[in-house]
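=== RUN LOG ===
request id: a7f3
mode: sequence -> structure
chains: 1
length: 290
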Amino acid sequence: MKTIKQLGKHFKEIDGNMWLVENDRGNLKIDYKIKSIISSTKSPYQQVDIIELYDFGKCLVLDGVVQSTVLDGHIYNEMISHIPIVTHGSAKDVLIIGGGDCGVANEVLKYNGVERVDLVEIDEQVVNACIKHIPEIAGTTPDDSRVNFIFGDGVEFVKDKKNCYDVIIIDSSDPVGPAVQLFSDVFYTNVRNCLRGDGIMVCQSQSPVFNKDILGNVYSSLSELYPIVRIYKTVVPSYPGGMWSFTLASLKSDPIKADARGLRGNTSYLNDEIFKSCFSLSNMVKEIIG
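=== RESULT ===
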């Protein structure tokens, strides 16, 4: 097992115990008590760690930031995947950009009507580590013939493609490092061009408490490209602030009018009541989007 010094600056020894110290924007530090270090590697893009925490269980950590955990990762994965799939109603071809833990793909694959899932992830080591060490999140993804793993830059992938996907899910990490361009206007325009005439895209748009500027910019950018743009929210305990937002942009179907009975029953968090209520926004969020 690597020593604290070998693991790097995000790991500390406190009172004889090993802790992960997540630094959010330089303003907030969140300490997680570690039960064990499962895997720790340095990829060409980032530090990739699989660790087990006492409360959250096994989790993926990138550059010291918790991305997904066995305890609550299903909340995020279900919310970002099932809602656009159900809203569309007949999605066959789905593109996932990011999503290296394979959790979103695992949820999308629950729909028998989906025929192809292209998963574009820049860091192959993330995918390999999660498939090997966190099958609770990756699920059936590695064994499903409908999945095409494409290891490369999602920004480049969408540049020259036209009218080829029904649903595009942008499962990016925070807008730092390799994920910065996944929040740009140029990228959003290229994503729009990849969609068919009734297509839908969705992205995670950060915390409406701590990242108001990001949420506002995402909503503004997508409103220039789509006739229907809706923000929805959930609570993911392992994310700073707990509350998290998603922005769905649609060329035809409004998620508020979607028939939630199309939701697959094998979800742990999402049901038709939450499907309907998650689009009800607080005054705080309404102020952000104007």
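=== NOTES ===
The radius of gyration is 18 Å.
DSSP finds ten helices and 13 strands in the chain.
=== END ===
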